[in-house]
Amino acid sequence: MKKFLIALLCLASLAGRLSAAQVLDRKEVIERLDSCEAILQEIQGNFKTAIPAEYLRAAKGIVIVNQFQAGFILGIKDGYAVAMVRRPNGKWSVPAFLKAGEVSFGLQAGGKTFNGVYLLMDDSTARLLFKNRMNLGAEAKAVAGVRAAEREAVTKPLPSDVKVLVYTAQEGFYLGAAIKTGYMSPHEEANRLFYNTTYRMPELLYSDWVTPPPEARYIMDYVARLTQ
Q1: pLDDT (tens digit, 9 = 90+) per residue, 94-130?
Q2: Cβ distance 121 to 60 under 8 Å?
């Protein structure tokens, strides 16, 4: 049993090293940004999964997540995310890149994807994005949010302590269900490649020190239109 556990730990370590060894270039970073925009468009393009306008207008931050989970016994969830925050002047920040994933042990097999949008509903939750490692579901209560198709039928408000609303492209996602979000951390290399700067998350999200590259304008304009 001891040898078995050691082997699993070695596999986890190897997986982390392989992930770290992947060479990222600016083209791939742009593809990640485009895929996150596509996830948001897919969710908003279907009335059954769309986020209601009033929640988008109230949000202080938005995180779009693209994750893949696969494994047998050792489960590895890996992926990436893009985050934007609403600044005190009401304008949205440039998109910043995150790593997203987790490793878990137990009997499991197969693979699945998770494409989703997290709405961060207050400034303190949005500022969790500064942390080297964060778990929104653990550090701020995260639940499945009301969808546009459900809005008229929902009479009971969500609990007042909810800080993160989660939306996916999956129809029938259970309203109000508690969500385990996994961990996320700033992807400093992706941000450096995209913006050609060493500025970190606080400067990217809450300052005007970075000029958005042309590739960032599409998602920035789209989020601005959704949240007007």
Answers
A1: 999 999 876 444 444 444 667 889 999 999 999 999 9
A2: yes
C-alpha separations of 151 from 53, 54, 146, 148, 221 in Å: 11, 10, 6, 5, 26
Query: pTM for the complete prediction?
Result: 0.82
Instruction: Reduce the secondary structure of 140-204 to three states and give it as a string.
Output: CCEEECCCCCCCCCCCCCCCCCCCEEEEECCCCCCCCCECCCCEEEECHHHHHHHHCCCCCHHHH
In whole angstroms, give the CA distance from residue 129 to residue 21: 24
36 neighbors 66 (Cβ within 8 angstroms) = yes
Distance CA 174, CA 125 (A): 23
Indicate the pLDDT class of residue 179, thresholds 50, 70 and 90: confident
